[in-house]
């Protein structure tokens, strides 16, 4: 679901940029590519790169049991992994003013729409990569790092700082469709135990 969420966000932001009279400039790409990779660097020219910066497991939901009832049995699964994503929009447009305009419009878009689900979000459902997308719900909020954190982020990415905005996307659920075991439902009490309970 990682790729699908990032693709949905990319399509939504590009649609908004078009509505505002700007170009569809957002692409999913690693902004931290080494300078030696000239082919990939060419794809970043005059674009806004959307990069997955970090993943964070939502620890508060880690211990919720994951089981369901099916055909008079309890089916057990491993706990669902709930993730927060940190996504960085980095504007590498042809001019600094275009970069600032794009980042400003991206911030404006997420100010107007923070909640994304299958009923309020339009995306290309016919694309092969998006065929498994069913029900989803996630929120997007601006995350403001300190100057020290920002310096560390751009140092890790290669040192060349661009106009950017960092967002926290909560909560992406990842679950493999495999059971860990199943048991019959307890539907009667043994006769010996039952006789002790009766007055």
Terminal residue distance: 56 Å
In terms of DSSP E residues, the strand content is: 25-35%
The secondary structure category is alpha+beta
Oligomer: single chain
Task: Outline the structure in words.
The structure is a single chain. This protein is α+β, with helices and mostly antiparallel strands. It has one domain (2-57, 82-173). It has five helices and nine strands. It has helices at residues 2-19, 38-43, 96-112, 147-157, 191-197, and strands spanning 26-28, 47-57, 67-70, 73-76, 81-92, 115-117, 137-142, 164-174, 181-184. The strands form two sheets. The chain has a six-stranded mixed β-sheet with strand order 1-2-5-8-7-6. The chain has a three-stranded antiparallel β-sheet with strand order 3-4-9, with no helix packed on it. Strand 1, helix 2 (38-43) and strand 2 (47-57) form a beta-alpha-beta unit. The model has no long low-confidence stretch (mean pLDDT 82). It holds the Pfam family Pvc16_N. Residues 4-182 form the Pvc16 N-terminal domain.
Defining traits:
three-stranded antiparallel β-sheet; Pvc16_N; alpha+beta; six-stranded mixed β-sheet; single chain; 199 residues; 9 strands
């Amino acid at each position: 679901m990682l790729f699908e969420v990032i693709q949905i966000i990319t399509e939504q932001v590009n649609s908004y940029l078009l509505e505002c009279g700007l170009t569809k400039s957002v692409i999913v790409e690693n902004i931290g590519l080494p300078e030696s990779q000239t082919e990939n660097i060419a794809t970043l020219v005059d674009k806004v790169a959307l990069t997955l910066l970090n993943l964070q497991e939502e620890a508060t939901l880690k211990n919720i049991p994951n089981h369901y009832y099916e055909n008079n049995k309890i089916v057990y699964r491993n706990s669902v992994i709930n993730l927060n994503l940190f996504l960085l929009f980095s504007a590498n447009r042809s001019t600094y003013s275009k970069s600032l305009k794009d980042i400003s419009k991206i911030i404006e878009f997420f100010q107007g729409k923070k909640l994304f689900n299958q009923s309020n979000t339009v995306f290309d459902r016919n694309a092969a990569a998006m065929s498994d997308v069913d029900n989803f719900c996630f929120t997007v909020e601006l995350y403001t790092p300190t100057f020290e954190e920002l310096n560390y982020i751009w140092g890790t990415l290669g040192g060349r700082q661009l106009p950017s905005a960092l967002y926290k996307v909560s909560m992406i659920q990842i679950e493999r469709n495999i059971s860990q075991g199943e048991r019959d439902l307890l539907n009667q009490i043994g006769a010996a135990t039952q006789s002790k309970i009766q007055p």
